Fold this sequence. Notes:
This protein has 17 helices and no strands. The protein has one domain (6-185, 203-384): Growth Hormone, Chain: A (Up-down Bundle), CATH 1.20.1250. The protein has 400 residues and is mainly alpha-helical.
Amino acid sequence: MQGRPLALLLVLAMACAAIAMGLRQSFGLYLAPMTSALGWSTSGFALAIAIQVLVNGFSQPVVGQLADRFGGRVVVTGGALLYALGIAGMALSPNLGVFTFFAGVVMGIAVSAAGMPVIVASLTRQLPESMRGRAAAMGTAGSSLGQFLVVPLSGLALTGFGWQWALFAMAAAALLMLPLALPLAGRPEPKATVAEPEETAREALSRALGSRMFWCLFFGFFVCGLHVSFLAVHMPGFVALCHLPTQVGAWSISLIGLFNIVGSIGAGELSQRWKRRELLVAIYGLRALLIAVFFMVEKTTTSVLVFSALMGVLWLSTVPPTVGLCARLFGTRWLATIFGLVFLGHQIGGFLGAWLPGLIFDRTGNYDAMWLISIAAGIFAALIHLPLREPKPAVVPAAA
């Protein structure tokens, strides 16, 4: 920690993650007003956000390696500037093609650089093994706090000032991440120990990609991304389709963020005490059950908000055990890079979760098929984690 107060580091990192996630999760609110005002299709808007998710996924390992080499501070600072540029470009886009470039490509890279994986990996590297699950939980909880606070504020700005000025306000808010990134670690100092020998990035990647455990985490996170993007992008539209007030959609996303604070912190604590494999199996299994129940009940304001709260507990609670397993299985020297590859699976799933529901809606007029796909995906994710075997931490022999 080099004398840096732990509490200050955690608070500032959480605040940075909060702004990044809150701004990103607000984009679903703009689907209805922008498509209505500009004459764009639902699937066209959804494709732009889906491209963002996909670019985020493919750029995350590259950005992660930059963070491993040069430190989280430099990468998050660059990401904050790209955030502001991308959101301002979305507000000024004259057509869907330009909007797709800013919302998809620019924002995809920005989310990678200033997003939760880089922040969490930077925190994890700076802390001892006994606190890694807790650090991942705090970073994830910070993201959720932003979702709870920023999305309703964005909804109010959207209602009060219109979509274009609301986007300009979001671009300005992105610049608040610049000072918050300062305490994040600079360039990591490689350390070779008996427990974790020094290796090159290529060797670490080769070891990870050749491991069956890596692919279990990859495809499990794929399902997490599918669920998260589907609800984040399309829940407001689904609420409108059910003839419920527009603000219910914003509060739905906000409640998911609020209750995920509890879920993330709880998952972080459990990952310190419980086997992470069983924790992931339980989370994905409960997701499938919850989505199945919601699909069958009557859609009212109460049922939507209750579903959102319960889903919030399970929302990003997958992150602490997944990061913990990555660190335990593959070490921390190249953690941002390897977790970035696992996160690629999340974002490929996120691409489908953002784009496929829009396509289904344009062709069928409802989201029924997507709800069924989400149930099946949750069951698949629970099953694919069963082969995971978590190794015991290596013990470094004491010096004679």
